[in-house]
Amino acid sequence: MPLPRVSNSHHQRNHTMTRFQQACIVGSGIGALSAAVLLIRDAGMPGSRIRIIEEAPLPGGALDGAGNAHQGYVTRGGRMFTDETYTCLWNVLESIPSPSAPSRTVRDEIRDFNAAWHSDAHARLIDRNHRILDASDLGFDFQDRIELMRLLATPERALGTKRIEECFSTHFLDTHFWAMWRTTFAFQNWHSAVELKRYMLRFLQELPRIHTLGGVRRTTFNQYDTIVRPMVKWLLEHGVRFDYGMRVVDADFNTSSEGGLRIDTLHCVQDGHPLSYKVGAQECAFITIGSMTADSRNGNDHQPPELVRDQRDGAWTLWRNMARKATCFGRPEAFCGNVDESKWESFTLTMRSPLLIQRIQAFSGNAPGTGGLMTFKDSSWLMSIVVPHAPHFENQPDGVFTLWGYGLLLDTQGNYIAKTMSQASGQDILTELMHHLGFEDILDEVRRTTTVVPVMMPYITSEFECRSASDRPAVIPDGARNFALLGQYVEIPEDVVFTVEYSVRGAMHGVYGLMGLDTEVPPIYHGIADPKVALASLRTLMS
User: Fold this and answer.
1) Torsions phi, psi for 482 (to 5 deg)
2) 491 three-class SS
3) N or C: which end of the chain has fewer CB within 10 A?
4) Cβ-contact 517, 511 below 8 angstroms
5) Per DSSP, which regions of 282-411 are E strands?
6) Residue ranges of the alpha helices (H) in 454-530?
């Protein structure tokens, strides 16, 4: 059954619009939403000629935020930004009106929020005896410094598929620095050394302040309420069509008359029924490949979340089917082929009493909403938590508080709970956390007034998997005539995956390239090229 086409009968072509007159976008994550904004803002395409197809019932992809005070709030991930690195994101958000003050932008809102609530962590690392460690002492010895500088000096082609643990000694992997760096950015020891090198270069400016997280910028509310909701509102006001509950599972391509590949048909499933969407001659397509939050599942106070291993989500199905048809689409199996290497679990606490928040603030010395990440360095789950500024959800009432956390090591038994994290219920996770904080005296009261929603994410760090250079396809694959690829699994040289910035930058490359625009993508920030940043980082490394 064919899908109905987006009508353009009531619109004249904008004089600034080039090459394509319509666009179909698969997925509604931040990359897809940004592509739609850029098509309207920079390519002059009327919003009524843009269609977004989404498998889920809501937009936003990994940028989520849901729930209520009674059943519990949940965000699968917490997003941290920086002024220097997130240039493409800020560029897009400068065009989106703030919901609270339409004369101002979302970028203005985020800037003002961070001016008022500046990150300044006083308890970045905590040991097994509930002591706050001196995290300014990174713990490097001479060999650690040599190993780190060797990594930065080694070309990516020479690093190849090496793991991080193949490039560093056991001593380095036990330093305060590595505990902070890996939990700030969610690295496992077995992840790609190439990706770590890129992170070190992209976030070099954070090295002198990694113990305070002073360079971190956060959003006013959770990322869905602050970023996704205003972007979707703006797109709807411009006439963009959203089709939810539609799973795209395959795409047909043919060889164009001028050579190269043209996307011809998208194959979809909706309510169990197959549908097809024919891509028009004057239409381009933007396809999100892969998904780091695919097949995520929630648990509750009494049940652990399910770990899905059999890839039920459409994003991976689509990419795998495409990759079978042409080598230019990369190799998805490099990223989705080992769930045990890419999974981790997060949890959101909804507290109907201020008791735990008050005790954490008194213990840490962190001002409300400014503390950033706290990591329990000796936790067998490598557990970290952050207390966001309240309210963190737009509908969060007074007297209700939230806390977000995650664990990197899911298959080891807890220090206090005789279960692995993947076996633990929400209340089990809360109990383990309370013991790490040394708050056993208030455990019963906190358990009674707190709802915990744990979330298992099988592919959350899959973009960090060791890979070959050809495993990630280009945003516009070689020979592509009317389509571009979006998301965390395309290749953008020198930039870093597992960031919102990566998805937005990819959208810019895709839109500007397909539409033939001479608009420049904001350059990638290189802290090493700034003498002040380079010197400050060198001093930190050598101290």
Assistant:
1) -140, 25
2) strand
3) N
4) yes
5) 283-288, 297-298, 344-351, 373-376, 383-386, 401-407
6) 500-514
CA 318 distance to own-chain centroid: 20
Residue located via tokens 């076996």:
423
Q: Would you tell me how many other CB atoms lie within 10 Å of the CB of residue 301?
A: 17
Half-sphere exposure of 516 toward its Cβ, with a 13 Å CA cutoff?
Answer: 9
| Interval 77-105: pLDDT, tens | 988 999 999 999 999 999 999 998 989 99
The two three-digit tokens of residue 464, written as one number: 């960090």
Alpha helices in 369-470 (DSSP H): 426-437, 443-448
Residues 6+ apart with CB under 8 A from 334: 465, 466, 467, 468, 471
Report residue 367 as tokens: 């001002």
Helices and strands (H and E) in the chain: how many: 18, 17
* H or E element in which residue 266 lies: strand 261-270
Phi and psi, residue 469, nearest 5°: -60, -30
Query: What is the distance between the alpha carbons of residues 3 and 12, in angstroms, rounded to a whole number?
Result: 23
pLDDT at position 19 is 83
Q: Which token pair is 359? A: 């005790």
Phi-psi region of 391 (alpha: psi -120 to 50; beta: other; left: phi over 0): beta
Partners of 242 in the β-ladder: 52
Residue 531: is the preceding peptide bond cis (ω within 30°)? no
Spell out the residues 6+ positions from residue 535 whose beta carbon is closer than 8 angstroms to its own.
none
Please report where in the chains the tokens 């400050």 appear, as a residue.
536
Residue pair 37/234 in contact (Cβ under 8 Å)? The answer is yes
CA distance readout (Å), 103 to 98, 109, 434:
7, 11, 44
- For the chain, the first-to-last Cα distance in angstroms comes to 66
- The amino acid sitting at 81 is F
Q: Cα separations (Å) of 155 from 145, 158, 197?
A: 18, 5, 9
pLDDT tier at 367, thresholds 50, 70, 90: confident
Residue among 307, 299, 288 at smallest CA distance from 457: 307
pLDDT at 332 over 70: yes
Q: What is the pLDDT of residue 102?
A: 87
From residue 527, alpha-carbon distances to 489, 532, 538 in Å are 24, 9, 12
Asked if pLDDT for residue 292 goes beyond 80, the answer is yes
Residues in the chain: 543
Q: What is the pLDDT of residue 485?
A: 98
| Percentage of the residues of the chain whose pLDDT score is greater than 90 | 92
Q: Tokens for 531?
A: 């003498």
At 271-284, the pLDDT tens digits run 999 999 999 999 99
**Edge-to-edge strand ranges of the sheet holding 261-270:** 246-255, 261-270, 273-278
What 3-state class would DSSP assign to 527?
helix
Which residue, among 341, 408, 416, has the nearest Cα to 373 in the 3D structure?
Answer: 408
Token pair listed for 408: 């990197």
Range name among 16-30, 230-244, 439-453 with the lowest pLDDT average: 16-30
**What per-residue confidence (pLDDT) applies to 372?**
84
Return the structure tokens found at 407: 């664990």
Tens of pLDDT, residues 478-495: 999 999 999 999 999 999
Let me know: does 363 contact 353? Beta carbons within 8 Å.
no
